[in-house]
């Protein structure tokens, strides 16, 4: 029942969920469900949106939800609300429990920087296009590392030439394993979209394709499996992007959620700094290469994400928004709200 102490309005909750649904998710599967009751927004995983071949342990599903959780939390904070976050309040079985409960407990002015981050939510996109050749300044990398650390994760910038070669070999190896797996190809095809009215999945406009192979140290996930040639944006040249490995001290659902929150935060910090990024996920999807990656990256614990980061080509057109299901599809409002 609504009481006079209720401080989270339906409108504020809807704004938070609208921010949450703009988060990145594996294959744009948008695997989240939200419920508003009283002063609390609950987040659950939508298991019907799992991608079991690429993500058999649902690690990337939880990370996607973690990024959405970060956006929702940020939107509430930017609205001047004080928010208490309880993670996995019912335990870590995704089929039964909530991933998080965001409870508004009062008012509190937003922290410095939160407004710039919230503004970046609608400008953040996964950018798979070639980057400008400008290197990432150390100060920018430090800012991204602080973003990861503030969510309880670590971030390593892969700069040693030998380590970059090792990483590119691991990616190529994992890419080969995945693209030779018919189940992987079928799942990727099921989440690839040509219909302009689709509300989820990866649209053709987000995929860089072309008749010639893309020239980079690092292979992107190849979404171009339906044989249509995508549009080339400019002549290929070997790019040397910044490469960051995001990790956690251990490998458990609550750490995956932290990694998702860290991913959400650091992608917004990157966007606010004029950077573009795209995941290089294959080496983490495949257990064998993920284990080797941890050693190559030198982080202590588990690698959760590899990101390619750089400055977008100033001549490249703005990226279109990838589709999203509307907030009313993913938000349930309880009678007491
Ligand atoms: C956990 C996770 C893993 C991802 N892995 C990859 C990947 O390996 N390759 C890739 O190109 N994009 C990857 N993405 C990006 C998604 O495809 C992207 O977020 C989604 O299509 C929505 O597009 P947007 O980020 O532009 O909003 C990943 C995203 C998440 C959250």
Blueprint of the fold:
Elements: H1 10-20, E1 32-37, E2 40-45, H2 59-78, E3 81-87, E4 100-107, H3 114-120, H4 138-149, E5 154-157, H5 161-179, H6 182-190, E6 192-193, E7 202-203, E8 242-248, H7 253-272, E9 276-279, H8 282-285, H9 287-297, E10 302-310, H10 327-330, E11 331-333
Parallel strand pairs: 1-11, 6-7
Antiparallel strand pairs: 1-2, 2-4, 3-4, 5-8, 8-10, 9-10
Bound molecules: flavin mononucleotide (FMN).
The gist of it:
With 337 residues, the chain is of the alpha+beta class.
Task: Describe this protein's structure.
There is one protein chain. The protein is α+β, with helices and mostly antiparallel strands. It has 2 domains: 10-123 and 324-333, NADH Oxidase, CATH 3.40.109; 138-310, 3-Layer(aba) Sandwich (NADH Oxidase), CATH 3.40.109. It has helices at residues 10-20, 59-78, 114-120, 138-149, 161-179, 182-190, 253-272, 282-285, 287-297, 327-330, and strands at 32-37, 40-45, 81-87, 100-107, 154-157, 192-193, 202-203, 242-248, 276-279, 302-310, 331-333. It has a 5-stranded mixed beta sheet with strand order 3-4-2-1-11. It has a 4-stranded antiparallel beta sheet with strand order 5-8-10-9, sandwiched between helices. The protein has a two-stranded parallel sheet with strand order 6-7. A hairpin with a 2-residue loop joins strand 1 and strand 2 (40-45). Helix 1 crosses helix 2 and helix 5 packs antiparallel against helix 9. The longest helix is centred in the N-terminal third of the chain and has 20 residues, at 59-78. It is globular, with a radius of gyration of 19 Å. The termini are close together. Residues 226-236 have low confidence and may be disordered. Flavin mononucleotide is lined by residues 24-28, 60, 63-64, 67, 125-126, 128, 202, 206, 220-221, 278-279, 281, 322.
């Amino acid at each position: 029942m609504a009481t006079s102490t209720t401080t989270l309005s339906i409108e504020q909750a809807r704004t938070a969920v609208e921010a949450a649904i703009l988060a990145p998710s594996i294959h744009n599967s948008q695997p989240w469900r939200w419920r508003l009751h009283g002063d609390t927004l609950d987040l659950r995983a939508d298991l019907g949106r799992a991608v079991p071949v690429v993500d058999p342990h649902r690690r990337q599903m939880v990370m996607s939800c973690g990024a959405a959780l970060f956006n929702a939390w940020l939107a509430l904070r930017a609205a001047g609300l004080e928010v208490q976050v309880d993670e996995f309040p019912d335990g870590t079985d995704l089929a039964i429990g909530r991933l998080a409960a965001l409870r508004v407990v009062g008012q509190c002015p937003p922290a410095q920087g939160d407004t710039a981050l919230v503004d970046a939510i609608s400008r953040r996109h996964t950018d798979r296009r070639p980057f400008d050749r400008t290197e990432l300044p150390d100060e920018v990398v430090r800012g991204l590392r602080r973003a990861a650390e503030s969510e309880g994760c670590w971030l390593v910038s892969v700069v040693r030439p030998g380590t970059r070669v090792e990483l590119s070999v691991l990616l190529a190896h994992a890419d080969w394993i995945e693209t030779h797996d018919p189940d992987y190809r079928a799942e990727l095809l099921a989440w690839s979209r040509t219909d302009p009215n689709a509300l989820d999945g990866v649209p053709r406009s987000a995929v860089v394709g072309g008749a010639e192979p893309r020239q980079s140290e690092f292979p992107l996930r190849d979404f171009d499996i339906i044989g249509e040639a995508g549009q080339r944006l400019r002549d290929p040249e070997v790019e040397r992007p910044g490469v960051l490995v995001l990790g956690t001290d251990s490998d458990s659902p609550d750490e995956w959620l932290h990694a998702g929150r860290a991913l959400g935060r650091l992608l917004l910090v990157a966007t606010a700094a004029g950077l573009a990024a795209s995941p290089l996920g294959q080496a983490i999807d495949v257990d064998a290469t993920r284990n080797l990656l941890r050693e190559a990256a030198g982080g202590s614990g588990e690698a959760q994400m590899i990101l390619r980061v750089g400055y977008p080509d100033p001549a490249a057109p703005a990226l279109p928004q990838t589709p999203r299901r509307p907030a009313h599809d993913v938000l349930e409002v309880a009678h007491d709200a």
